[in-house]
Amino acid sequence: xxxxxNYTNPICSDTFQVAANATDLLSYSPAARTTITVFxxxxxxxxxxxxxxxxxxxxxxxxxxxxxxxxxxxxAIADIIFLVTAIGQRLYTYCKSPIYxxxxxxxxxxxxxxxxxxxxxxxxxxxxxxxxxxxxxxGVCHPQRSHNRTGTKTYRWLLLxxxxxxxxxxxxxxPSYLKYETVCLIWPEEFSHWPGxxxxxxxxxxxxxxxxxxxxxxxxxxxxxxxxxxxxxxVRGLNASVRRARLTSLKDKNARLRNQIAWMLIVNGLVFFxxxxxxxxxxxxxxxxxxxxTAVLEEIFKCxxxxxxxxxxxxxxxxxxxxRAAFGVVFLPPFGKNKFRKANNTSQNSAISSLLDIxxxxxx
Length: 364
Hints:
The chain is mainly alpha-helical. The chain contains eleven helices and three strands. It is a multi-pass membrane protein.
């Protein structure tokens, strides 16, 4: 591959002579090359197909058009955009330059648009996950309020507000990448075909980087505690319903409903916050304390966040027979229609009586 190209008339702020034993510091390591050329493309394709399949199911299956699924569809859209931007940008820069983290192929505009898009979709995804928990809480403890037309319109406005809010907050991060700097590099003879410049997108002032790290982490922490509080209340309501159901014939149905929802909450919470948590914690630590080289840790934690965006629909599908049946309706019609109809009827018959019990118990 010929990398000896001239990007738009760069103005070098400095010139460095690269020693022969220092070229490895500026190039991709074997582990980084394997990650970018093998793992990330697979994850990108899987994540896009996975989330698109989920969107198709939600839009094509009539019984899947619920407020919860509207929030999950919103999450899937955010995940697709995030994966395409985050991984796509890395693949493009890798193909265009052998220098690690070289911003020359995308320029200042690419830096700004890429980071703005990634931050916006990340924050929108946080909001979507929280809205899912809120809607689930309303459905468990206040079903008569959550399933009316007013409640549906409220969540539509909340979804729109989440995107606008995410975009507004992300726009404040722009100064963190607004200073475009280019240095000239003089390579050893065997690397003479490599680009003679290396560009980076830096903050206009150092404190902008600190602000960005903190401002991205705070919503994650707030969302974590909100979701935990909602999950605790939902599980309490389900347990109260089970205790009440011991005197009725609905005991088995209530137990199955409680176990399914409880495990779904646990798995969703663990996967989402465990996969995103390490990178957010690292960002916060970097903002408040001086740290040494964290490139390896940062790369691992980024891959975890990419994985989270790729597998979210799998979690919902694997934990719900109704979702599996809905996928069967779209992709395996002869097999899926009866399965979805049966799952839908069972869900409605057992859930209505169970949730009404939960609502009564929660008001005691």
